[in-house]
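Mods, move this if it's the wrong board.
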Amino acid sequence: MSGSGDPVLGALGPWLDRSARDGQRVLLAVSGGPDSSALMHAAALAACPGASLRVATVDHGLRSGSRAEAEGVGRTAARLGLPHAVLSWAGEKPGGGLQDAARTARYALLAAHAEAIGAGLVLTGHTRDDQAETVLMRLSAGSGTAGLAGMRAERVLAPGIRLGRPFLQLPKANLVEWCAARGIATLRDPSNADPRFARGRLRAAWPILEREGLTAARLARLAERAARDEAALTRAAEEALAAVLLPAVGRGAVVRLDGAGLTTLPEAVALRCVALALSRAGAAPRRLERLEALVLESLLPALRRRAAIRRTLAGLLIASDASATVSFAPAPPRRHPAGVALAAGDPRLLGKEGPPAYIGDVCTDGPAEPFDASIRRSHTPGIDR
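Not the wrong board. Structure tokens:
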């Protein structure tokens, strides 16, 4: 079905065509809300021959009746001729950071199920409104351009599995109207408006923000511009890293940079160049403000003075010497509390002040996974999609 004149079918069609050409199964993540319900019904209409569709609903087990709702999605999927599975988030739930933990569990369950059924593509129903909320939440967290770029339309979810968001350019109202026009019943998750969660408080504030011109469309446009600028900065940083990376010495895994070359770079590029070096050396995710304190307030000034410094960040010891060589090596074990730390450094590098903001490949839109350093913790929309 071409979807000509129908924005929902038009947005979804290319994703299913592409997956059919690749011979992949497609897994639809459907909660029963209007966005994901539109995704499932539109996919049933738009699927071309050879596009093998499957549906999965994640039951987080956080509300009474959530299992029944998930099974209801299964009955609807069956009427559409689509195989369905309920994926349950088992185990004890955390006392804090519940929505972050639920999001991480949701992606992990979807990735595992996609692998089990041989799906190479997982589609969700995230909309332009979700993108706007994500950008606003990252703005409040003090994110740089990587965070303000918001969610990506497509990214790696697991080895051999992509995550796609066909509706990321569509307003949520389009999907709500699409379902209403076809008499498609949808669910509403009350947690999306729960004031205990930041996203619920943000949604309550939308009318005020929109009156001031801070609309979903403008925030989505900001995400596009930030993504464009971040891509350019990342490419410049990759080229800079190739230019300042020094040959490995000995058998160790120490990453070494030409600090003199580092000081010639624009600060935004130098910051990302060091971030890439940290990732190459095996660093854990790091907050943007800690990276800024390391690079802009400690490392670059020391390199310009040809002064030796030693700092720790993200599990690594970063050292520069009088010859302006910068090395990144595993940090030594912490001494006994009664001892003196080997490299105390700037205390802000170890602090926990304020909400987290990340830089470069550390700030995307998914859970942290060992198989892909580009998938890291950040804000994404709530459960009802």
